[in-house]
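Annex B. Sample input.
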Amino acid sequence: MEKLFKLKEHGTNIRTEIIAGITTFLTMAYIIFLNPTIIGKATTGMADTAVITATCIASALGTWLIGWLSGYPMAQAPGLGLNAVFAYTLCGQFGLSAPAALGAVFISGVLFILLTVTGARKAIVEAIPLSLKKAITAGIGLFIALIGFSKTGLVIHPESDATVTDLTSFTMPVPNGPKGAMMINPTTILAIVGLIIITILLVRQVKAGIFIGMAVTAVIANIIQFTTDAFGNKIDMGIKLPESWAPNLDFSMFGKCFTGMGELFSSHFMAIAAVLVTLLLVDMFDTIGTLIGAADKAGYLDENGNLPKIERAMLADAIATSAGAVFGTSTVTTYVESTSGIAAGGRTGLTSTVTGLCFAIAMFFTPIVNFVPTAATAPVLIIVGILMAASLKDIEWDNIELAVPAFFTVVGMPFFYSITDGIAFGFISYVVVLLAKGKAKKIHPLMYVIVALFLLMYVITALQSLGIIK
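Annex B, continued. Sample output.
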């Protein structure tokens, strides 16, 4: 261990690294339960068990890679925000099947590898203003929060056209009850309780607060499941007992990314370009932002604020993304929850090794997922939205050149219900504003290329809707 990880040089020991690794796992284990909620059967058609298996494998591989290649005590898993891109943009907005979307993720992973080893990935990120990068993170946070509010039942589609959305009445018709009989909606109320529990734990700075809060909410849901309403009906919390307690390793999506490429490439070129641009941009900003943030808290940044060996860390992310697509999950990225393990004393790749091992073991406990209902996972989406919205503070709102595109990016994602459209409107408005100010030279050439792709996408979409082209 000493030879592999240089523990003494980093002022740590095996016991400390093991505790740190387990701590990191507990703070991000919620992704095992949450990922099926976002990219599972309900949204993409992939079996939840297949998503869980792929999530555990991709998380283990990515975490081991970043620990072994860079030596940093960080962890990786399918990214929140990136899985929303997969479900609601690739499968939803672009209408791709799950295999085709996985094919897009695999290709993006290969492109990430090429861009990373050539240094182009860093150049692309540097071409985009910091305020726009932060706006993308915040916008995805609001988008995820909107999904969470919807899944909890707090935000509903109103029956009238008076408003676009509305707050729930917190009630629902009594199942099998008298006509017109109403009862409190147990899912919505429990989701609010779960949100309060997680918030209190985070405020109290409890390690693994998100995971613990989700687990406590799930336990309450299971207790409620055994109760009845005033009419003697069993209260349904969406919990179904597993058919078997044996580990359910579901590899039904393994290799489907390759068969899905036929569908992907049968799509219009601009649609493919838009898909890949979205994946590239979101993952690049997510990974680099998280790496820098976690490294800053760990004290790994040099005097210029740069992270040594960042290319190796990004390479781990790129390889894990392609591998994850092969097994059947969305883009893999570094998790900011890695800082919990760092705070517990983790300083080397041994921490990552332990975290990865925990994810590998978790694969064999998939039946437990049946006991975690939407009421327990939806509040996590809202909390993650809050955490991602913290990026708003880094946007230069007093600079109109940056405030306008940042605003369109942030509000575009939840309002248009599309991460792609949010990015597109932000980038297009950025170029328009700077051209209007006579600052064309300030715009990086890559921005012109990206904006041109987005504009072509909208033109082609309009022509298709008019029936001019197929």
